[in-house]
Structures are given as C-alpha cells and as structure tokens.
Amino acid sequence: MMNVSVAASILPSGLPLPVSFGMIPLFAANPFTEPVGVIHYLIVGAVLFTAGIACMTLKRNALGILMGIELVLNGANINFVAFSSSYLRAEGAPTLGLDGQVVALFVILLAAAEAAVALAITLNFYNNHATVDVDRADDLKG
Amino acid sequence: MTGMLDMDISSMTHVIVPALATTALPALPMAGINWHSVLFLLFAGLACGFAVGVVAADNVVRMALYLVFSLGATAGLFFLAGAEFLGAMQLMIYVGGTLVLLVFGVMLTAQAPFVSIKPSSSDRTLAAVAGASLLALLLTAAFSVDAWMAPGAGVVPAPTATPLGMALVGVRVDTPPSGSPSGGHAGYMLPFEIVSVHLLVVLVGAAYLARAKRRRTPRAIDAVASAMPVEPAVVATAAVVAPGRPTGGAKSALVGGGR
Amino acid sequence: MADFLIGLGLPGWLAWSIAALVAAILLLNVIAGGALVFIWAERKIAARIQDRLGPTRTGGRFGWLQSLADGIKLLAKEDLMPEGADGLLFRLAPYVSFCASFCAFIALPFAFDVVGQRLNVGVFFVVAVLGLEVFGVILAGYASASKWSLFGAMREAAQVVSYEVPLGMCVVVPVMLAGTMDLVTIAEKQSGWMSNWYLFHDPFTFVIFWIYVTCAVASVNRAPFDLAEAESELVAGFHTEYSGLRWSFFFMAEYGSMFLVSALAAVLFLGGWNGPVPVAQLVGLSEGTGDSAAYFVRLLGLANLIGKATFGVLLMMWVRWTLPRLRIDQVMTTCLKYCTPIAAVMFAGAMFWQLFLPGGLLPGWSRPAGEIREGWLEGPGGLPATSAPAVVRSAGVAAAEPSDSSGLAKRSPR
C-alpha cells in the first residue's frame, strides 16, 4: 500500500549507515550540566518529523493522517526556531534572527488553514462513506 | 500566610520556573546543574515520547491527546529558545486546532466499529523500518555540520513580540543577524496580507465544504444509524438500499441534542 | 528568597528549587483556598437571592465550616469508574483540566512584582492556556462512556471554541491601548486615579468590558451558559460519572478559572492592583523600592487585586442565581450574532478613539497621548540606536521597572 512506496524510496538508496561519530561526545557529556545547543533541537525536530511521516503512512484513519501532518510541520518549526535563537548558537555564530520566527509563524497559520480544509473534506468523506478509513476511498479505482 | 507572602514577594518573580527565566540563568550560582538543559530534557522527552505515542496509539481520541501533549511540550521548547510569542501562538492555534481535531475524532468515531482502525502488522513493520531509516538520515544530516554541534553560548535574546509584529506590518526594527548575506531585513507586509486573505478563503471554503446539503439519496451515516450493529464492510452497500431518513447527522444531533 | 537561602549556605540549586516550590504552593493555595471560600459564598448568595436556607448548622455562625466538611466528604467518597470507560483518559481528564487552569496563574500579576513568571506575552499566554481547560472536559465526556457526558462535552467544546473569538477581540483592546501584551505593564499603565482605568478610557472600552464579562462567563461555563452541565437535561453533564476527589478537581478547575478570568478583567480593565484612589502614592510611598514600605504598598496592591477578582466572582454568582439558563442555540446566537459583531465594532471604535482623541474629551483629564512604549522607533532611521538594551521603557515607569527586564543588559554586544 502506501507504505511500500515510501519504504522503497528510502531503502534501496541504502541505510545511511555511517552515522557520524560526532554524536559520541554529545552523548558522553553530562546532559544536566552541558548547555543546550542547536543540535539538541535538531534531534527533537527530527524525531517529531519522523513520527509524523510514520503516522501519515501508517494510519488508515483520516484524522490520524492529519495528526501526522501536524507533527511534520511542527518538527520543521522546531528547526526554524532553533536556528533563529541566539541562545542556542555559539558566541557570534550567525542566526536566522527574526526571519526564522516569522516563517514558523506562517507555518502555524497555514497548518491551521490546512487543518480546516482537511477536516471539511473528512467530514464530507464521512457523510458519503460512513467511515474515516482512507483505504475505503476507492470509488475512482478502475 | 501574609507574613510569608511579604517575605517572598521580592523574589517571586522568576522563581516558579527558574530556567524559563533565561535572563536570570547565566548568573545562577548553581552546583553545576544547568536548569535550562534540565527543562530542555524534560520538554524534549515529552515531545518525542508523545510523538511516538501518536504513532503507536490506535484509538483516535488517545492519538489526539498525545498530539496535544507533544505540541504543548514543543511550545515549552519554544519558550526555552526565547521565542515567547511563538510559544504562546503554538499553544493558542496549534493546540487549539488539535482540539477541533479531537472533537471531530469523537464525533466521527463515536460508534463502536470506528473507534480504532488498526493497521496491519506488516504495515507496522514497514513503517518502523522506513521511519528508522529516515530518522538515521536526518540525524546524520544534523550531525554533519560542525557549527551546529557547538553548545549554545547562552546569549539571551531580546523579547520578540514587538519586532515580530512590526516585521509583519513591514517595518524591521530588530538588529540584523550578523553574517546574514542579505542583511536580512525584508519586511513581511505582503506575505502577511496574503496569509490573511488565504485564511479568509479557507474559512469560506471550509464552511462551503462542510455545509449541510439537501440530498435525494440518504447519507451513508443515516443508514448506519438506522441499522446499528452492522459491519463496516457492509455499510457502503447498505447506504444504497436503505430507506430514506431525514437529514440531520451526527453533528447536529450531538450539538443540538438538548432542544 | 532564593538569595536569602543561598545566604544561609544552601547550594544554589536547592535554594532555587525551594523558592520555586514555595511560589508554586502559594499559587496552588489561591485556587484551593479560593474554591473553599467561594463555594461557601456561592451557597450563601444563592440562599439570599432565592430565599433558600444556606448552610446554617456546620461551624456555627454563617456555616463557615460547611465547605471544609464538604471537602472531607469528597475525600472519603468511593472513587467509581463506569464499566465501559476508557480507564486512562477517565483518570487523566480531571488533572488536564486542573493543570490548564493552574498554569494560567503563572503569568498573572497579583501585585507589583508579585507574579509567578513575568512574560512578554502574558495576555496571550493566559488566554491560550485557559482555552486548554476544555480538553479535560472533552476527554471526561468521551471517556465516561455515557450519553449525558458526551452531550455535555460536545456542547462545551462548541461553546468554548465559539466564545474564544469575541473574548480574544475584547482582550486585544487593552493590549492596543497599552501597546504591550505584558500584563504587568498593562496594569502599570493604569496607575493613578480611577479615571485612568481602561474601563473609563473611552465609551468603547466601557462597552467592551461588558462584552468581556459575558464571554468570560460563557468561557468558564457558568450559568446562564452552563449548558455543559445542565442538570435539568443532562443529569450533570460531563462530570456525571465522576465522584470523590476527581470530581473535586473539576470543581477546583472551574473555580480557579472563574477567579482567573475575573483577575484578568481586573488587570485589563480595572487597573490591576492600583486602587481607585492612589493612597500609597498620595502619602509618598513607592512600590518600586526594596524597603519594607514598598512591601506594604505591594500588600495593599495584592489586597486590591484579590478584592477586584473576588468582586468579579461574586458578580458571576449573582448572575448565575438570577438568570435562567439559555438554550444551546441561544448561546450560539449570543456569541456569533451579538458578541462578535459588537466586539468588532467596539474594537474599531477604540482604535479610532486612540488615533483621533487620545487625550479624551475633557481637556483637564488628558492622559499621556500616543506614548511609545518600547523604544524601537526612537533611534535614527527607525532602527534602535544601540543593540544592547532591547527594550527601552518610556520615562513614566522607567524608575519603577523591576529588575527582571534588566537582565537584557547581559546580552552581549555583537
């Protein structure tokens, strides 16, 4: 089904095995005393993004797919905020400044708009099919 | 109580959540513990854990609840990064938007067969593999830039609410980020207007899509309601043959139930 | 207080934790103690208004022990969960509600410098967090596996989501007048005589205050808008299936929210901790300094704000026991056909008033016109002259500025 295509697009290119050895000092340090940097936010963003993608591919519930989209957008937002925060960057390192936050703001607004339209579509789908299972949306299948 | 309050007043500011008070943070005479990092770990753990929970859960209401917790923890992360306005915005719009998702989840899946639509186990395996590889890919990319690995210097950012508002009406009043190639000083008047109109269009469009239509053939949901314990598989066929019932679906019945 | 503890020789982290804990417990007491007092007041007021007998026996005079006895009864009650309930969500729901109500208190200023966490976006934060309370209600309604609960929760969701729109419009007006979303600064701007309160700023704010009151009553689900727990139709609405301690969490969340919206109204429209007559300023005391006189002034401010908020809560009780409950369609009509358009018009009116009549109609009453709150536009070319002090307060309150925003000076130069 849907998952196959996603998996196929990622798997043949090879698992990105050489995970950087730069991770090691990060996890060796005491997390309670080390100041937080951009990389920490990037990790959280990556986890949220991945969870969102998995949600979108895995769920058969239309509302679950919507939640996946929200998670993906949110993961992207975390990255924008991390890059725009001078608190997280090293001394004197360039930041996105305010622009990152403005973009994140627009992302939030567009996510709200997207959710509204998608919910309306879901409601229509439910009215016509009496379910929110997207696998049942096969009316146009030849 | 008053005596206690009296003594406490001077330092009550910035005490409740010490690390939220990023201004007071660098001066903290702490025994090595960085409260900012501790709170970051807390919020990051919550955000990631509940995000995984969203994927793992099958019940749509629980999924929505986990999503709310995840998004709320993300708002905490925004506060920690100094983006206060964005954090409040996240709480208001994102989490509020999820509230509507939750309501729809309850409304559309209140009938027993639809509470949890489970994916097959092969789908789960595939999703886990694909997710793990995607995560590895993203993490490799994130760790590949040395500049991102440096711990933060703890430079406390200025409050951003006012500059953000000014930027949205086209006036930039913040300091340009150092080393930014373009000077980074474009206003956002036009995008702001476009987004406003976009929201209006979406409002009208969503209302149009979701309006109660007058229809000749009965809706599938009415058939389900009239022939209740029924397999979801036969619903579609039942919809065609079921006798007509007046409109008035799940939503109006629930919201206007007390008339 | 943390500095005091550090002075005693405690390690820094312990001192900060204790200080944080004390502040948190104080805030918790505002809700719990408030609920204790307000339930007694509610019974007494109901008795007065509707010619009933209020609590008379427990605790002798005025029945003041009644709520305490009730509390003990609730603690001792059996904790029931319905057969088909979703256990996790059923257990979680009261705490979600209570936490949302409690979290909003963090940003609420009780007096000058008596605020859990001064936030640059305080108003926004409070309104946003307050809106999360409905999550607990929906979860409770869904998890109870009861028809009545689900009906109640759905009604509450529809109602709260609708009423957030006019409520937001009302809240924006004081923000516009003050030029900031910082609740502390908004209250500071209304210091002085009663005429400085935003309630009396212009006719539009006077009207919009009453819209705010209506929407606030609706958003905390009090009568006449308590459709979510309409006992004549829905048994008890979303908390039909709850008993004992869990029920009392919902209860405390409701009273906490009532107090919160009242306190927010006090800060936004009624001058915050500034009394109708600036007594302390008249006798020459200042709240900004660090001596004991300043503490006394702050205590006075605390009494002021709590008094105003209590008045708001009593007003809600008065309304509850006077007006009959609306139907759900009437509730929606009130919100969408009356409150929202009126709030929008009043918002525009207040905006034009601020633009064209900033000094007010009477020349003798003129207030500082068109004050620029934050110094963004003061430097040459629209840019701040220096990058170091990001927020430059205008002269009026600069002396009274608490130390916390001075942390910005630690921002290192680029």
Structure description:
- The complex is a heterotrimer of chains A (142), B (259) and C (414).
- Chain A has 142 residues and is mainly alpha-helical.
- Chain A is built from 5 helices and no strands.
- Chain A is elongated and about 60 Å long.
- The two termini of chain A are 16 Å apart.
- Chain B is an all-alpha fold.
- Chain B contains 11 helices and no strands.
- In chain B, helix 3 packs antiparallel against helix 4 (84-108).
- In chain C, helix 2 packs across helix 11, helix 6 packs antiparallel against helix 7 and helix 9 packs antiparallel against helix 11.
- Chain C has helices spanning 2-7, 12-50, 66-76, 87-103, 122-130, 133-143, 147-178, 183-189, 203-219, 231-234, 244-269, 279-282, 292-322, 328-356, 395-398, and strands at 109-111, 114-115.
- In chain C, strand 1 and strand 2 form a beta hairpin.
- Chain C has 15 helices and 2 strands.
Task: Describe the protein's topology.
The complex is a heterotrimer of chains A (142), B (259) and C (414).
Chain A: H1 2-10, H2 23-28, H3 38-58, H4 62-84, H5 98-129
Chain B: H1 2-12, H2 35-56, H3 60-80, H4 84-108, H5 121-143, H6 146-149, H7 161-168, H8 189-209, H9 220-226, H10 232-241, H11 250-255
Helix pairs in contact in B: 2-3, 3-4, 9-10
Chain C: H1 2-7, H2 12-50, H3 66-76, H4 87-103, E1 109-111, E2 114-115, H5 122-130, H6 133-143, H7 147-178, H8 183-189, H9 203-219, H10 231-234, H11 244-269, H12 279-282, H13 292-322, H14 328-356, H15 395-398
Helix pairs in contact in C: 2-3, 2-11, 2-13, 3-11, 4-6, 4-11, 6-7, 7-9, 7-14, 9-11, 9-14, 11-13
Subunit organisation of the chains: heterotrimer
Mean pLDDT of chain B: 68
Instruction: Assign a percent range to the helix content of chain A.
Output: 55-70%
Radius of gyration of chain B: 26 Å
Approximately what portion of the residues of chain A adopt beta-strand conformation? Answer: under 5%
**Shape, per Cα inertia axes of chain B:** extended
End-to-end CA span of chain A = 16 Å
What is the terminal separation of chain B in angstroms?
Answer: 49 Å
Summary, kept brief:
The complex is a heterotrimer of chains A (142), B (259) and C (414). By secondary structure, chain A is mainly alpha-helical. Chain A has helices at residues 2-10, 23-28, 38-58, 62-84, 98-129.
